[in-house]
Amino acid sequence: MAILRMLILAIVIALGTILLAWWAVPLVAAVYGVLMHRTRRPGLTAAVGGALAWGGYLALASVGGAPVGRFGSALAASMQLPGWGPLTATLVFPALLAGLAAYLGARVGGRYLTAP
Amino acid sequence: MSLRPLAITGAVVLLGGVLYVGRVGAGPLPPLGPFLDPVRGAWGSVAYATLPDSASASIPALGAGVDVRYDTRGVPHIFASTEEDAIRALGFVVARDRLFQMELQARAGGGTLTELVGAAAIAADSEPRHLGMPRGAEQKLAALTPGSTGRRLLEAYAEGVNAYIDQASPAEWPVEYKLLGKRPARWSPLQSLYLYARMGWTLAYLNGERDRLAARALVGDAASRALFPVHTPVQEPIQPNGGDAPRTDPLVIPPPGATDSAALALLPLLPRGARNDDDAEVSRLFASNNWAVAPARSKSGHALLAGDPHLGLTLPSIWYEAHLVVPGKLDVYGVTIPGSPGIVIGFTRDVAWSLTNTGADVLDYYRETVDDQEHPTRYLLDDQWKDLERREEVYRGKRGEVLRVDTVRYTHRGPLQRMHNEWVSMRWTVNEPSDLATAFSNAAHATTAPAFLDAFARDYFAPAQNTIVADRAGNIAIRSTGHYPLRPAGHDGLSILDGSSSANDWTGYWPVPEYPQAVNPAQGFLASANQEPIDSHHSPDYLGYDAAFEPWRALQINRLLRQNPRVTLDDMRRYQTDPGSVRADWFVAYLRNAASVARARGEGGASLAAADSLLGAWDRRYTVGNNGAILFETALGNAIRRTWDELIPKGDTTRAATPSSAVFLSLMSDSASVWWDDRRTTGVVEDRDAILAGALAAAYDTLVARDGPPSKGGWAWGKVATARVNHLLGLKGFSATGLAVQGGRGTLNPSVQNGGFGASWRMVVELGPRIRAMGTYPGGQSGNPASPRYGDRLRFWRDGDLELLIVPPALDSLSASQVSSRLTLTRGGR
Question: Most exposed: A83, B202, B499, B652, by fewest CB within 10 Å?
Answer without folding.
Answer: B652
